[in-house]
Amino acid sequence: MRKETISVHSGSYHDAATRGVNTPIFTSSSYEYLDREECPYPRYFNTPNQEAVVRKLCALEGAEDGVLFSSGMAALSTTILAFVGAGDHVVLMDALYGGTHAFATDAFDRLGITYSFVATDAEAIAQAVTPATRLIVIESPTNPLLEIIDIHRVADIAQAHGIVTIIDNTFATPVNQTPLALGIDIVVHSGTKYLGGHSDLSCGVAVASYEHAEKIRAMAKHLGGNLNATTCYLLERSLKTLVLRVERQSANALRIAQFLSNQSAVQQVYYPGLESSTGHRLAAAQMTGCGGILSFELDAMQQQPETFLRQLKLIRPAVSLGGVETIICAPHATSHAKMSAEERRRVGISDALLRLSIGIEHADDLIADLAQALNG
Ligand SMILES: *Cc1c(COP(=O)(O)O)cnc(C)c1O
Predict the structure, then answer these.
(1) With a 6 A CB cut-off, is 261 part of the ligand 1 pocket?
(2) What does the pLDDT look like over 5-54, one tens digit per residue?
(3) Which of 87, 110, 223, 264 has CA 20 to 30 A from 290's CA?
């Protein structure tokens, strides 16, 4: 089946009692145990609503098994801890989501785990690998500059050394990129973003082979970041429109990136869908669409970013991303506010940088709003 069909049908629970077409919400946290091998329990990650969502996401990502979490960070931290301990070394990308970056720098030292942060470049990862390396953690496209890494090359490097690989696939979604097919071991998402897609829930997921998923589930039972049945149901409902949403968001983002590229008040646009972008060739090879996030820099001589933000009428300045509504933020004041100004300069995040999370509105309405704010 194709992704459009999978997103609607896979994993649905067929209720024999009512023959309803939707998965019922099973709120029990207590289940009878006699005459059954495995008893459901929320923190065992095996209730009917958890399983319905996991089966749909596994089908979309081409995975055997997975674990559903209460946030993206629960998924990332649990998955990382399932594969490393004292004495092990981890290679991570410098441009990883801020929360993942902070988890490594805050927790690894105390746990006796050593680590190297490297650029968004497969060869930099190869050079950082040591005999103690057990895990490589990557993300593509990155936040907020939309850098692209050669996923297949990273998988090859890791396989040659028997190293487990994790990719944060939040920005791409399974609609635009399926990293397991490129040789990556584990795909993790912040489902709070595109999978949920309506800016109204928090969740995360890790999908992989049976063997890797079992290791993640074992650690997850200790740490306990499970998702409740009602939110599982909301997520299952959201996933039915994932392909429609992300395809529209990707098409809108490309049109808006092209529009912004032609504005004199815009100095630079970061979007891998633009042929002029550094990551374009890699993105074209490993993605089917470039997603709904793009960033741009205003020419501060012509317009102050804050003035621009306040002139927007439809697009609201807000944090997070991936919802049906278009929002905008200044990373220096939001996602990267905890970094020092010097550190931000080093990773290329200026005070004039703005990040758009494009929604499913009509592109013409979004362009009209951007145009009136640029000219205002
Ligand atoms: C938001 C985000 C996370 C963290 O997810 P939460 O659901 O907020 O815990 C991880 N990775 C990426 C790329 C994100 O955008």
Answers:
(1) no
(2) 999 999 999 999 999 999 999 999 999 999 999 999 999 999 999 999 99
(3) 264
Nearest CA to ligand 1 atom 8: 72
Phi, psi of 190 (to 5 degrees): -85, 105
Do 75 and 206 touch, CB atoms closer than 8 A?
A: yes
Q: Which domains does the chain have, with CATH numbers?
A: 3-239 (3.40.640.10), 243-375 (3.90.1150.10)
Whether 153 sits among the annotated catalytic residues: the reply is no
CB 351 within 8 A of CB 331: no
> Does 376 have pLDDT greater than 80?
no
* pTM to 2 decimal places: 0.97
Q: Decide: 137 and 92 in contact? Cβ < 8 Å.
A: yes
CA of residue 12 to ligand 1 center, whole Å: 26
Interatomic CA distance for residues 331 and 264, integer angstroms: 22
Where are the extended beta strands (E) located within 20-129? 65-69, 89-93, 114-118
- Non-local (6+) Cβ contacts of 281 within 8 A are none
**pLDDT, tens digit (0-9, with 9 covering 90-100), for 163-203:** 999 999 999 999 999 999 999 999 999 999 999 999 999 99
Dist CA 324 CA 315 (whole Å)? 12
**Any idea what the Cα angle at residue 151 is, between residues 167 and 340, rounded to 5°?**
60
121 is catalytic: no
Report which secondary-structure segment, H or E, holds 341. helix 341-346
Give the Cα separation of 238 and 344 in Å (integer). Answer: 35
The rounded Å distance from CA 178 to ligand 1 centre is 18
